[in-house]
Specification:
Keywords: Flavoprotein, FMN, Oxidoreductase. GO terms for molecular function: FMN binding; oxidoreductase activity, acting on CH-OH group of donors. The protein has 352 residues and is α/β, with parallel strands linked by helices. It is built from 13 helices and 12 strands. The strands form 3 sheets. Strands 4-5-6-7-8-9-10-11 form an 8-stranded parallel beta barrel, surrounded by 7 helices. Helix 4 packs parallel to helix 5, helix 4 packs parallel to helix 13 and helix 12 crosses helix 13. The relative contact order is 0.21. The mean pLDDT is 95. The structure holds ligand FNR. The site of ligand FNR has 22 residues, from loops.
């Protein structure tokens, strides 16, 4: 029926809610502040209307997507998210396998619960590594080097988190993360104790020179995640960013920011085609992705739906949810008259 992929996601979300401890569910769902940004993300994609083409040959729709030399069969990318082991015992190893089997790229979080080496070995598709700049900069540099050695093909530097957003739903709630799953990738570089905890915090003094520095240290392209303005995106590109991710961090950082869907056109203008632009926040269907791609995004990241699928179905669940989204996109692209992502352009969307 019409709501196919949406009702599948709603079912998967309910299965995850039933399967997960309450505090983990709340941690996954939570937004910062009054959760205004969290609440607006999905609806913002529905503020656009499509202007389809007709009489195109859409008998074969090819979703192949090239990003910085990484080729994926689908423009859906798994967003970096912390602690997948809270959803499933195999954690990120299951996620990369399921995503790879669906032809999707995965971005692995600094706060992953499996080692980069295990994740690299489990991967059946391409993956990138998401970095935070830590107060101990040597720690970040060690991580990006290890990620490159383990097979990551790009670094995604998250820049919207000088301090972690305050999430009312989970304030004061302690989640029991097993020691062998808690910040495992940082642990081996730190001596235990209070000083180590401080070293593993984000460095609020980060400036654009970090982009070039991490590229040099890792030998990988550096994509900057968490940009909502064209002028800021331009500043990142001028500092050497190989790509930009338009993101509100799933509504978990600054509340009441402009929704990603509305920030995207401004960022695209600032970037001016110099580097790829990705976007995330509330992408829940092929039509949401179609709007993003037609506005000019090169790919879309999906966050929470991947955690729901992982919690309820492990690697196979992740494969299924990403496959379902790709099939939905394939269908709506055909009906909109676009046989390939590069057949989509800005003229195909208008504001509602
Ligand atoms: C995140 N996100 C995130 N981003 C990042 O750069 N590093 C991280 O470690 C995390 N961790 C994280 C944990 C959880 C539980 C969530 C829900 C999100 C943000 C994530 O990459 C992405 O920007 C949003 O989740 C996308 O929005 P949707 O698809 O969840 O609406």
């Amino acid at each position: 029926g019409g709501g196919g992929v949406l009702s599948e996601l709603a079912d998967s979300r309910e299965r995850a809610r039933a399967a997960l401890p309450r505090e983990v569910w709340d941690y996954y769902e939570a937004g910062s502040g009054d959760e205004v940004t969290l609440g607006e993300a999905e609806a913002a994609w529905r503020d656009f209307r499509l202007r389809p083409r007709v009489l195109q040959d859409v008998s074969r729709v090819d979703l192949a997507t090239r990003l910085l030399g990484t080729v994926a069969a689908s423009p859906f990318v798994v967003a970096p998210m912390a602690f997948h082991a809270l959803a499933h015992p195999d954690g990120e190893c299951a996620t990369v396998r399921g995503a790879g089997d669906a032809g999707c790229l995965t971005v692995v979080s600094t706060r992953a619960s499996r080692t980069l080496e295990d994740i690299g070995a489990a991967a059946t598709g391409p993956w990138w590594f998401q970095a935070y700049l830590m107060r101990d900069r040597g720690l970040t540099e060690a991580l990006v080097r290890r990620a490159a050695a383990a097979g990551a093909r790009a670094v995604v530097l998250t820049v919207d988190t000088p301090y972690v957003g305050r999430k009312g739903r989970v304030s004061g709630v302690r989640i029991a993360v097993r020691d062998d799953q808690y910040l495992v990738n940082l642990a081996q570089h730190l001596v235990p104790g209070a000083v180590a905890r401080e070293a593993a915090e984000q460095d609020p003094s980060m400036t654009p020179d970090t982009i070039g520095r991490l590229a040099e240290v890792s030998g990988l392209p550096v994509v900057v995640k968490g940009v909502l303005r064209g002028d800021e995106a331009a500043r990142c590109v001028e500092a050497g960013a190989a790509g930009v991710v338009v993101s509100t961090h799933g509504g978990r950082q600054l509340d009441r920011v402009v929704p990603s869907a509305h920030a995207l056109p401004d960022v695209l203008e600032g970037v001016g085609g110099r580097v790829p632009v990705l976007v995330d926040g509330g992408i829940r269907s092929g039509t949401d992705a179609l709007v993003a791609l037609a506005l000019g995004a090169d790919a879309v990241l999906v966050g929470r739906p991947v955690l729901w699928a992982l919690a309820a179905g492990g690697a196979e669940g992740v494969r299924e949810v990403l496959h379902g989204l790709a099939e939905d996109l394939r269908h709506v692209m055909a009906v909109a008259g676009a046989a390939r992502p590069d057949a989509l352009d800005r003229s195909m969307v208008t504001t509602a």
